[in-house]
UniProtKB/TrEMBL annotation:
Gene3D superfamilies: 3.40.50.2300. CDD domains: REC_citrate_TCS. This is Transcriptional regulatory protein. The modification 4-aspartylphosphate is found at residue 54. It comes from the Bacteria. GO terms for cellular component: cytoplasm.
Length: 223
């Protein structure tokens, strides 16, 4: 049984998350904390395999809590379930070893898929002393959407998520590749490749802006 702790300051959301977790075979909620400070206290007396973690919380927020865990060499796995859509929150969560990041509101099926993927990942890592490329690909790719799994060769899922996240954050606004490149510290050439892919699958649209002089500029907008 995979032992889960939920760290969420909204009691109603925590209750829903608990029902979601316990509806999935092989998972059991062994504790609920209202913030990172409470969670740290609970973890002193309980063995936890997986933490369902929010970002926005009083006292110790989710990112700070995860940092404290890693600074204390606690390797407990974390899945973020949060309303935080900032690129920085996502980027830091991945840097500190979160295994997934779900943005509220989300469908139950996405939550279920995340936990089932985690269970598969855990099984592979516990049963094998040596991991092969096939196993790595299963761990890395099986939780992504069908669109992400069919991403063309040469495009990386993490970079795609960052570009996609920036477009979502600025939904409805026309943006240049230069702006995205500067904001995400990625080369303009790279940004254009990801924007062209997002345009090809219908997530964004391109408009050409003609200035008084010089070449026309491509402007990108999330649909």
């Amino acid at each position: 049984m995979i032992r889960v702790m939920i760290v969420e300051d909204d009691p109603m959301v925590a209750s829903i998350n608990k029902r979601y977790v316990e509806s999935i075979k092989g998972f059991s909620v062994i504790g609920i904390a209202g913030n990172g400070e409470e969670a740290l206290k609970l973890m002193r007396n309980r063995d936890v395999d997986l933490i369902i973690l929010d970002v926005y919380m009083p006292r110790i927020d989710g990112i700070s809590f995860l940092k404290k865990l890693r600074q204390n060499n606690v390797t407990t796995d974390v899945i973020f379930v949060t309303a935080a859509k900032e690129i920085d929150s996502y980027d830091q969560s991945m840097a500190y070893g979160a295994v997934d990041y779900l943005v509220k509101p989300f469908e139950y099926e996405r939550f279920k898929k995340s936990l089932e993927h985690y269970s598969m990942r855990r099984k592979i890592l516990k049963e094998k002393d040596i991991i092969g490329q096939e196993d790595i690909d299963r761990i890395a790719l099986s939780c992504g959407s069908e669109k992400e799994q069919s991403t063309p060769k040469g495009l990386h899922i993490k970079t795609l998520s960052r570009v996609r996240g920036y477009m979502l954050k600025n939904k409805g606004r026309l943006i240049t590749a230069d702006e995205i490149a500067t904001a995400l510290s990625i080369t303009k050439v790279t940004v254009r490749r990801y924007l062209e892919y997002l345009e090809s699958i219908g997530e964004i649209e391109i408009e050409v802006e003609y200035g008084a002089v010089g070449r026309p500029t491509n402007m990108y907008r999330h649909i």
